[in-house]
Design brief:
The protein is mostly helical. The protein is about 60% helix and about 0% strand. The chain has a two-stranded antiparallel sheet with strand order 1-2. It is extended.
């Protein structure tokens, strides 16, 4: 569950970024240098923010219009390849499906899309596409797409750089809490969430971008911590489902005055009881095999009571040894040539079987 986050870093937080002791005692540390670098980027005023997003949306609309001008065979081929790639990546699919203006394309995938269009156009050289569409028109369309894309990237970069202090103020809260990520790693994950927020921000909603982006930044950081802090990796969708179950359990506990049972949890989250049990079991913690079995026997570990699957049972070893003696006795009655053939064919000497 997202916490209440500030629209922009407070004055105290900005002052903290001027002191290297917040992250490290070494002023030359890369984290301190990075913080000082982003602190020099001025924050956007509300008017500047509105103007940038208006230009960003205008550039995105221009790209959509240019896509629509592509010959149908090229556009359909590119859309098909993009959808196939998107379906293989749930994260990309989520961003694309909920983009602004009903766009089928995602700005995070625009470079790959343009490369595909370029390949399609090059493959059309010497062919008649759409009857009246010439290669010169296609080349002009390609150049216009590149210009609009370059403009959109510049605007996006300007918005992101002006809001990196917001990412820093949120990432700083997760330092020194036993998490496996460094400050720069947290900044990187939060910046990915910030870029997603730029793609999805709707200026018509009337709120400041920093307020909207705070949830996306925190969501990206918490997801990364969930996926990287576990000994055994769990898919993101499973972690999200676990989080929903824990939230429902907390709500039901306050409503019922007791811990809810599996049936009540399943009904609250809209999943089957079997699925809820599977998610809870998958999300359980890990235990070291070298940990003591109990407080009463600290010298005994869990691994002492686990069978070694690579080691055959002792009674089986005795049986194999007895069989080997019988086989050796029988084979010894054969001629040297026959004995060699049998030994090689059935691997009696080195456990390797040879063909005749």
């Amino acid at each position: 569950e997202a916490q209440s986050l500030p629209a922009v870093p407070s004055a105290k937080e900005l002052d903290d970024f001027q002191s290297p002791t917040e992250v490290t005692n070494n002023p030359a540390d890369s984290a301190f240098v990075y913080l000082q670098k982003i602190a020099r980027v001025p924050l956007l005023s509300q008017q500047q923010e509105v103007e940038l997003f208006q230009q960003f949306e205008k550039a995105a609309q221009r790209i959509t219009e240019l896509f629509d001008q592509l010959p149908p065979p090229i556009l359909q081929s590119v859309q098909l390849r993009f959808k196939q790639r998107r379906n293989r990546n749930p994260e990309t699919k989520q961003v694309s499906d909920s983009g602004q203006g009903g766009r089928w394309w995602s700005s995070m995938q625009i470079a790959a899309i343009l490369d595909q269009i370029d390949q399609e156009i090059k493959g059309c050289q010497g062919l008649e596409i759409g009857g009246s569409q010439s290669l010169r028109c296609l080349d002009s369309l390609w150049r216009a797409l590149n210009d609009a894309t370059r403009k959109m990237r510049q605007l996006k970069q300007e918005i992101v750089e002006a809001n990196l202090l917001l990412v820093a103020s949120i990432a700083k809260r997760y330092l020194f809490n036993g998490n496996p990520l460094s400050f720069l790693d947290l900044m990187q994950e939060g910046s990915i969430g910030l870029m997603k927020a730029v793609n999805k921000f709707d200026l018509q909603k009337g709120c400041r971008f920093s307020t909207y982006a705070s949830w996306w930044v925190q969501q990206a950081i918490t997801r990364s911590l969930d996926s990287q802090s576990r000994t055994i990796y769990l898919p993101i969708h499973l972690l999200d489902a676990r989080r929903s179950i824990f939230k429902a359990e907390s709500v039901l506990f306050h409503q019922l005055g007791r811990k809810p049972n599996l049936e009540e949890l399943a009904e609250e989250v809209g999943l089957s009881q079997t699925r809820v049990a599977e998610i809870l079991q998958a999300a359980s913690g890990t235990v070291s095999l070298d940990s003591p079995l109990s407080d009463f026997s600290p010298d005994a570990t869990i691994s002492d009571f686990l069978p070694d699957e690579n080691q055959p049972p002792s009674d089986q070893e005795l049986l194999l040894a007895s069989e080997k003696e019988v086989i050796d006795e029988v084979v010894s009655e054969l001629s040297p040539r026959e004995k060699l053939v049998i030994q090689l064919r059935y691997g009696l000497t080195d456990d390797r079987e040879y063909t005749l």
